[in-house]
Amino acid sequence: MKAIIFDFDGLIIDTETAWYEAFKESLNFYQAELPLEEFAKCIGTDDTVLYEYFRKQLGESCNTEEIKLRAYEIHNERMASVQAREGVKEYLQEAKRSGYKIALASSSSREWVTHFLGELSLLSYFEVIVTRDDVEKVKPEPDLYLKALNDLNIEAREAIVFEDSLNGLNAAVAAGLKCVIVPNQVTETLNFEKHALHLKSMAEKSLVEVIRHIENLENSTLNNS
Question: Does residue 225 have a pLDDT over 60?
Fold first, then answer.
């Protein structure tokens, strides 16, 4: 194992729960509802699917920009004071001490990611940061992770990914990566498959324990093949 790759939104900080609540409140203004299962489809990717849902609910004349602006105002208020999710900083410190390369692959913009990492004093941990500004297609396509691997100059078998969403998991698997799922409040009920490990939070196991678990799985697979 040579590298650890992190998702950002919903994993390092729980922006996703705040976004869900913000869009739900924004849509309520138009007497429409936003079920969690519909919002979950856009987690880890862009908002195309979400805006299509808005149009289905409100008709083609619905103003998605207006809905988005309302949601942004609500979200900004709720994200005024941000905190990293439980165990995140400890994982980054442990990875750095152990000599692993550390990267981030996010469907969000570079400006968005670096702003929050800077506020959390976590930016310096990352050797490579890949965002939607660097690729043609975001998650669930593998482009972000393939570029991260290329920038790290490693092979997929030499890294593990931490994700919180189905779109992120599918992107990691498509890139040939082993993926650890650490869901948040809005993704914890999703049906995750093909992941190497599922954690309630990063505080559940140390990074060393996670890596040992994955290496044991690989050894077991090799011995049985």
Answer: no
